[in-house]
Amino acid sequence: MKTNKRATNATLRILILFGPLAMTVLAQPAEEKNVLLQIEHSWNLALKNKDVSWFQHNLADDLTDISSGNGALHSKMEDIAALKKDKIVYDSLELSNLQVRIEGNAGIVTGVNHLKGKNENGEAFDVKLSFTDTYIKRDGRWLVWASQHTRLRQ
After folding, report:
1. How far apart are the C-alpha atoms of 80 and 122, rounded to whole Å?
2. Which of 54, 66, 95, 105 is surrounded by the fewest CB atoms within 10 Å?
């Protein structure tokens, strides 16, 4: 009986000492997933408002972006240059079907982005893009490392 009581007391001490640490470790993946989801939503807002500084701050310098229009590869600098010239007016950008996976310093967000607005000629558009965004955590910060969008048929 004494052996079981000692083992129980030792287990209790371990739980008391390391329980909060274990809870912190377990909570981190959920918190990290929420960070990536927040970035996705702020990305849409930045696109709508043509906020170049958001893209400068949140895209990795070695970003690879694949265009849904023609499959062309673009760099961070090319994306920012295109944004500066962009004449599209977005009425709404709505994310759905979001899924987040994280392992180590890499994260992937998949989902659908529903965009409505007017193109550079003033013509209305209504497009849904299925996307995969890959993130890398550098210096304690998540950055968009790769992005690929595919237009969905409606």
Report:
1. 22
2. 105
From first to last of its 154 residues, the chain has per-residue pLDDT tens of 555 666 566 555 555 655 554 444 444 678 999 999 999 999 999 999 999 999 999 999 999 999 877 889 999 999 999 999 999 999 999 999 999 999 999 999 999 999 999 999 999 999 999 999 999 999 999 999 999 999 998 7
Report domain extents, the chain.
2-151
Q: Which two tokens stand for residue 58?
A: 């949140």
Strand runs labelled E in the chain: 59-66, 73-74, 89-103, 106-118, 124-138, 141-151
Fold of the CATH domain 2-151: Nuclear Transport Factor 2; Chain: A, (3.10.450)
**In terms of Cα–Cα distance, which of 148, 51, 150, 40 is closest to 95?**
40
